[in-house]
Write a structure and sequence with these properties.
The chain has about 170 residues and is of the alpha+beta class. It is built from four helices and four strands; from the N terminus they run αααββββα.
């Protein structure tokens, strides 16, 4: 017996009962009306719950499809990077999956290379480069870092100065 059948039974009992006091009959009638409204409200909640459940399931299915598509795109991007010989910052640095903000460009603390940030004196653009460029002694006499926005020289490194200082230290 469902709740609607039970409510109909209660209403029938109220109609079939013979009350001596009309006030008692009014009281029971009012209580049954309130119960009837509660039954309707609960039924509405069940219907809304079912609709929400269907909606959540459809969102879940769409999310699964989106995740699969992103996985395919990621695999395709990796294939394109492999074909073109493009290395990501993680590949260039230390091949670690980490999310920390300090240290090298890949975000880990295990790399020896640090990023140097310099503000361009001409346009104010922040220019970043690895300090490993400064470690190539002998390969270049002068290294100039240019601003990608305005082509102004933002940093100059001369390796001869370091070599001259090292030679002077040895002479003593």
């Amino acid at each position: 017996m469902d709740i609607y059948t039970k409510m109909a039974y209660l209403k029938g009992m109220l109609e079939g009962m013979d009350f001596e006091d009309k006030k008692e009959k009014k009281l029971f009638a009012a209580m049954i009306d309130i119960l009837d409204e509660l039954v309707e409200a609960v039924d509405d909640l069940y219907e809304e719950q079912d609709e929400l459940q269907e909606y959540v399931e459809s969102i879940d299915a769409d999310l699964e499809d989106a995740e699969e598509l992103l996985d395919i795109i990621d695999e395709d991007l990796e294939l394109v990077e492999d074909i073109l010989g493009i290395e990501t910052l993680e590949d260039e640095c230390c091949d670690m999956d980490c999310d920390c903000e300090e240290g090298c460009a890949c975000g880990c603390d295990d790399c020896e290379d640090e990023i140097i940030e310099v503000e361009c004196p001409e346009c104010g653009e922040t220019v970043c480069f690895y300090d490993e460029m400064m470690d190539d002694e002998g390969e270049y006499d002068t290294v100039e870092i240019l601003c990608p926005k305005c082509d102004a020289v933002v940093y100059t490194f001369e390796s001869e100065l370091i070599e001259d200082i090292d030679d002077e230290d040895i002479a003593f």
